[in-house]
Amino acid sequence: MSAVVTRIAPSPTGMLHIGGARTALFNWLYARHTGGTFLLRIEDTDRERSTPEAVNAILGGLEWLGLDWDGQTIYQFARAGRHREIAEQMLAMGRAYRCFATPEELEQMRAEQKAAGKPPRYDGRWRDRDPSEAPAGAPFVIRLKAEQTGETVVRDVVQGDVTFRNDQLDDMILLRSDGTPTYMLAVVVDDYDMGVTHVIRGDDHLNNAARQLQIIKAMGWPEPTYGHVPLIHGPDGAKLSKRHGALAVEAYRDMGYLAETMRNYLLRLGWSHGDDEIIPTDKAVEWFNLESIGRSPARLDFKKLDNLNAHYIRATDDAKLAQMIGETRPLTAEARRRLVAAMPGLKERAKTMVELTAAAEFLFDDGPRTLDEAAQKNIAPAVIADVLPFLETTDWTGAALEAAARAFADAKGMKLGQVAQPLRAALTGKGNSPPLFDMMAVLGREESLARLRAYVT
Ligand code: GLU
């Protein structure tokens, strides 16, 4: 078997949403698994709707996800001359023909078909006519001279063999009258020139595959292996919408999900390896195959995504997490030191990087905290005033501070929590935090005492 070449071919008319990201992941994994090549083609032939911002969002999204592609990015529009060349070659081979039907004529044809209760389909009126019958200089399109009998079978690794009757497929346009290629022609020519062996994409392209195969067969080119992957649905089983999370992949980054989480989650959305839920990328590369892609639509599940993200946050190195937070906001050297020191406690509690950052807020700068609602309930200046002398004379380690607070509580007949909660409120501004006495150690003696004293009048 020749080396595997996969590709993704996004149209830069919008962002890389999670469906597209999953397609990219599957293609990337299959190429990496087989030691093959993963290519990127930007299908920017629709000049009206393609934007440079969308191109950047696609490239940025892939980079963030860590899905590196091989070789140069191919831009489809730049290849229009090559597409035209193939259309003309098909013409010369008798596998395509010029159609001079005017838009008005075609409109009338469709109206008649509709009136007769038939599906609208080009009726082949120029298929066997000689171009000399057309008025001189009349505009024309080039149409495929499609097989009219028999069947076209898409042999699909996900869907199985899917059979289309050729009499249901009409003579599609390959080249428009302005000389620009249609999507169907461009995809086939580009995949051939790029040596693509496996076309793995959303199952909304399954019908296109039958049409594309007709062009491939007409040219006598090798048929790629197809894998049409069921689309992703929302948590309620309905088609994915914005409300459901059909967002740009980078929106997931902004919501605080790690790229590794997204790779694992998107992999599990439509592919399985036994009951494994946690599949780090190295294992995914080792295990990925096309046979285990599921046949039914996968449902987006934010709870699963959160759980997986909590797992990968815990598994990420403390300094790395601090660095990631540092990429989203300025951090002084002292803030960074505190953040790394507090990270073991912080990362146990966070489902997203956004939560992690919010929970670490009390470490970022000095001075008294603004109290959240829970902290306002817990703050007890009298208790703080009483416990301060105990703390002031203690070694500034988590263990010693806890012992001091305990001794104070015992002496006063209080529970440790009754002492700890007011301290936590003053020190962190919150109702909960990583283990308090460790956080006091992280903040250091002076900063901790200053925050406590601020609540004593
Ligand atoms: N450009 C097409 C799209 O964005 C993909 C074409 C393909 O994968 O064959 O949906």
Plain-language structure description:
- This protein is mainly α.
- The protein is built from 20 helices and 12 strands.
- It has a 3-stranded parallel beta sheet with strand order 1-2-3. Strands 4-5-8 form a 3-stranded antiparallel beta sheet. Strands 6-7 form a two-stranded antiparallel ribbon.
- Helix 2 links the parallel strand 2 (37-42) and strand 3.
- It is elongated, with a radius of gyration of 31 Å.
- The structure holds glutamic acid.
- Glutamic acid (GLU) binds next to loops.
Summed up, what is this model?
The protein has 457 residues and is mainly alpha-helical. It is 47% helix and 11% strand.
Query: Which spans have pLDDT < 50 for at least 5 consecutive residues?
Result: none
Helix content: 40-55%
Strand order, sheet with most strands: 1-2-3
What share of residues are in beta strands?
5-15%
* Count of extended strands: 12
**Average predicted confidence as pLDDT:** 95
Q: What small molecules does the structure contain?
A: glutamic acid
Indicate the overall shape: elongated
* Gyration radius, rounded: 31 Å
Structural class: mainly alpha
Distance between the termini: 81 Å
Task: Please summarize the sheet with the most strands.
Answer: 3 strands, parallel
Question: Please, how many helices?
Answer: 20
